[in-house]
Design goal:
heterodimer; A: mainly alpha; MetI-like fold; 14 helices; 0% strand; flat; B: alpha+beta; 10-stranded mixed sheet; 4-stranded antiparallel sheet; 19 strands; 30% helix; 22% strand; globular
Chain lengths: 312, 530
């Protein structure tokens, strides 16, 4: 497994180099260049004098290829540049926002894990029962409800009516409950449906029939035979969604005033803050790749069938 | 296998708990009796007084300038009085004695000189400040006198010193060891203002303490906390839940929200600013080169409907590009009051006619179809556009609404890639001189809409003259010419006067939105709850 991991990591290096090129040149394809946008964002009139002064200050007066080489060189030395807006190091900015987003993602994953497992497994154990119909209705409802609307409804109920949880902000576990639940709702619906379908499909397999014939209990069959078999497909889908949760929580972050990566990225794009956008893309790409690798490790550890396929 | 499941669960839980511990604790969700919690839509920034990256009101909390702008008048701040030589080239400021920075150090003419010189080193980055180009030397005959020697008269000099940045004054201990605050940042936000920074968590909140060394009337509460809440509806809910005490805004609070909160028992306050929302007409656009068409649009615009329909009457109608509060600019010109019949007559005179069965006018097969661009991030501009679209349809003009990303909008404006656009003027200290300077600068976006005016060259010369003209009679004549040109050539259709709105917990007294001191006018709000 160690050899397999080393091989995967080596294969990632060209991918990251490619991403660095795409990240660097893609942001420069945005309409309105960084220097003009910077002047606009600090409310300084855009004139030839102010533009050339700012280009020099931001290092945008060099040829674009030299800018890339310079940026890459700095990245390799651990210097990801400085934000145009705050003048603070990009890594520091990313790190701070990431800590909040990671926390939100973890809490969201817990909601997804707990709720989907309970709803998905119980409805699969009793297909076409009243409970199963209720779960199917609930999942359809959760997957179609807009996040920002749900967020406001939850705020009104839990923060205004019951006065149990804060409306906005970050820092305590109470602040985490509403945004993470809001973010998790549509994913709970997806994973409940996925889990139910996969369990029902797997239950039709001959080895499950033989397991019943050997006298194993329903619980034993579920946890020792069905779930390890469906784990790789669930985890693969989970990995993709993990990325969306990390990068796509901007609406929830805005509604709940959560200072995460999503808000940071939108601000950076609006201001054409090149170092921050480039850093964000590179950082998220590395993160996705890391999560993929982690998911593969988990599949290898928990699914014997997958392990056999991969390590052969 | 069971052990592995437990291990996985334990890992997820411990990661969550450890990340939770890593993030900064937000100490409270409701305000203390001696604390005022205000909503801010964006992070307040690093509070560097020489850069433009922080929120202006937060800079006003911490720093002061030599003079301030209050209800259109320049009033003393750190300078108690000032003299201007007859030739307009020497400004002598008599500084307030005994003023201390928040760190206890004394405010002197030497530190004022150091600040101005530091800003002057980066004058290219502040091209809107005319004074930086003309200050030749700065003298400090004693600790309380500052003399600025100019190479030529500069009418905007006092205005320039009223801005929240970059000519706000930083204490000695705030300066970096090398370089300037602009290039190397500040060591600490040390100012003479009402508040001093106590704690700052980027993108979350900033806490301020009352500055014990403040020379003026101390604020009514000891602590001020600015919470970052980007969404205005969340901010209103936070106000209802008691998490914030006041929210002040000129653009995000809608009239519906404002009136609803009033009905629900919250305190409200409003004050018109000197910023005016107008429609800018591109005089170089093929369809708008004809001044008769521009006049027809002016007659076809009912700004009373916009004032009532979009702003619920909270923003009064405007009559000219500049607010009437701005000196010299109110020259008594009649405004184009809404008259759709007159608009129709003018369009027919210009040859724009209805073809049979058509909803809109056309001329030689070209439809009268205009593109209106606006900044998609500005809350009310879309609604203004919709009202204009309906009004212009009545006179046979098709208006295409093109919402744009802020940066693209500004670029299209600069490049003249529009027929009409919506914009709210800078207002405050920027009017009229900084705006005039921008209007007569080739390549500046404020210059673009005027490029098709027949008298543009002469207009530029007159605007240039305004910046250094010391004779009040001549200055008034210049403004008469400028405002008449804008009016006759219909470059701008004024809509409404931007109004600052505040919603606050009714346990507090109303904010003074017209006050120049302490930013947002909230510093003297007093509470009755204990």
């Amino acid at each position: 497994m160690f050899r397999h991991l080393c091989k995967e990591i080596l294969l990632l290096l060209p991918l990251l180099l490619f991403v660095s090129i795409v990240a660097f040149f893609l942001v420069r394809c945005l309409p309105v260049d960084g220097a003009t946008a910077y002047l606009n964002s600090i409310q300084v009139p855009v004139t030839q004098e102010s533009l050339s002064a700012i280009r020099k200050e931001l290092g945008l007066d060099e040829p674009i290829f030299m800018q890339y080489i310079h940026w890459l060189g700095q990245i390799l030395q651990g210097n990801w540049g400085y934000s145009y807006q705050t003048k603070r190091p990009v890594l520091e900015e990313l790190g701070r926002s990431f800590s909040y987003t990671a926390l939100l993602t973890m809490a969201t994953l817990i909601w997804i894990f707990v709720c989907s497992s309970v709803l998905g497994i119980t409805s699969a154990l009793h297909p076409n029962s009243i409970w199963d119909h209720c779960v199917r209705f609930l999942t359809s409802f959760l997957s179609s409800i807009p996040k920002f609307w749900l967020g406001f409804i939850l705020i009104i109920f839990f923060s205004l009516k019951l006065r149990l949880l804060p409306v906005q902000g970050a820092g305590t576990w109470q602040h985490l409950i509403l945004p993470s639940f809001t973010l998790s709702c549509s994913y709970i619906a997806i994973y409940t449906k996925l889990l139910r379908t996969q369990i029902l499909e797997c239950s039709q397999q001959p080895f499950i029939f033989y397991a019943h014939a050997r006298g194993f209990s329903k619980g034993h069959i579920m946890f020792h035979h069905i779930l390890p078999n469906i784990l790789p497909s669930i985890l693969s889908s989970f990995t993709i969604h993990c990325g969306s949760i990390f990068s796509g929580s901007v609406l929830v972050e805005t509604v709940f005033g959560w200072p995460g990566l999503g808000r940071m990225c939108v601000d950076a794009v609006n201001a054409r803050n090149y170092p921050m956008i480039q850093g964000y893309i590179l950082f998220l790409c590395t993160l996705f790749v890391g999560i993929n690798l982690l998911s593969e490790c988990l599949c290898i550890t928990f699914s014997p069938q997958y392990r056999q396929e991969k390590l052969q | 296998m069971r052990f592995q499941h437990c291990l996985l669960g334990f890992t997820v839980l411990s990661l969550t708990i450890s990340l939770s511990a890593c993030t900064t604790q937000q100490s409270q969700t409701s305000s203390e009796p001696d604390e005022l919690v205000v909503r801010t839509a964006k992070d307040i920034g690093d509070l560097n007084p020489h850069t433009m990256n922080s929120q202006m009101y937060a800079q006003d909390w911490v720093y002061e300038g030599l003079v301030a702008l209050e209800q259109g008048e320049i009033v003393p701040e750190l300078a108690e009085s000032w003299d201007i030589s007859p030739d307009g080239c020497t400004y002598t400021f008599h500084l307030r004695e005994g003023v201390q920075f928040s760190d206890g150090s004394l405010f002197t003419s030497e530190i004022a000189k150091k600040n101005i010189e530091a800003v002057q080193q980066h004058k290219d980055s502040y091209s809107f400040l005319q004074s930086l180009d003309v200050i030749e030397s700065i003298e400090t005959p004693d600790h309380n006198t500052l003399v600025l020697q100019l190479s030529q008269p500069c009418n905007s000099l006092l205005n320039d010193f009223t801005y929240s940045r970059p000519l706000a004054l930083l204490g000695e201990s705030g300066f970096p060891d090398t370089g300037t605050p602009y290039s190397n940042g500040i060591k600490a936000p040390v100012g003479t203002g009402m508040w001093m920074l106590e704690e700052y968590v980027p993108n979350q909140y900033a806490s301020f303490e009352s500055n014990p060394n403040y020379w003026g009337q101390a604020p009514s509460v000891q602590e001020l906390k600015a919470l970052v809440i980007p969404d205005v509806n969340t901010a209103a809910t936070a106000l209802r839940a008691g998490e914030i005490d006041v929210m002040v805004d000129a653009t995000q609070i809608t009239s519906e929200l404002f009136q609803q909160m009033e009905r629900d028992g919250f305190g409200i306050a409003s004050a018109p600013t000197t910023s005016v929302t107008s429609v800018y007409l591109n005089t170089t656009s093929p369809l708008l080169q004809d001044v008769i068409v521009r006049k027809a649009l002016a007659y076809g615009t009912d700004n009373t409907e916009i004032s009532q329909g979009v702003f619920g009457g909270l923003q009064p109608t405007a009559s000219a590009y500049f607010s009437t509060e701005i000196p010299y600019t109110d020259v008594g010109l009649p405004s184009y009051s809404y008259d759709s019949e007159q608009a129709n007559l003018l369009l027919e005179e210009a040859g724009w006619l209805y073809e049979s069965g058509a909803d809109y006018r056309s001329k030689n097969g070209t439809p009268l179809s205009l593109d209106l661009i606006y900044d998609a991030s500005v809350t009310n501009d879309r609604d203004i556009g919709l009202v204009l679209q309906a009004q212009y349809a009545k006179i046979g003009v098709k208006l295409n609404l093109l919402p744009q990303d802020s940066q693209v909008y500004r670029q299209n404006w600069t490049n003249g890639a529009f027929d009409l656009l919506i914009y709210s003027s800078w207002g405050g200290s920027y009017e009229p001189y900084a705006t005039l300077a921008a209007m007569c600068t080739s390549g500046d976006k404020f210059c673009t809409p005027q490029l098709g005016m027949a008298q543009k060259k002469e207009l530029d010369l007159v605007m240039q003259d305004c910046l250094s003209q010391t004779d009040p009679t001549k200055l008034q004549e210049n403004f008469q010419y400028i405002m008449t040109s804008f009016h006759d050539e219909v470059v701008y259709i004024p809509l409404t006067v931007v109004t600052t709105l505040a919603i606050y917990d009714s346990d507090f007294s109303a904010p003074d939105l017209t006050s120049a001191q302490g930013g947002l006018g909230i510093s003297h709000m007093t509470t009755t709850h204990s």
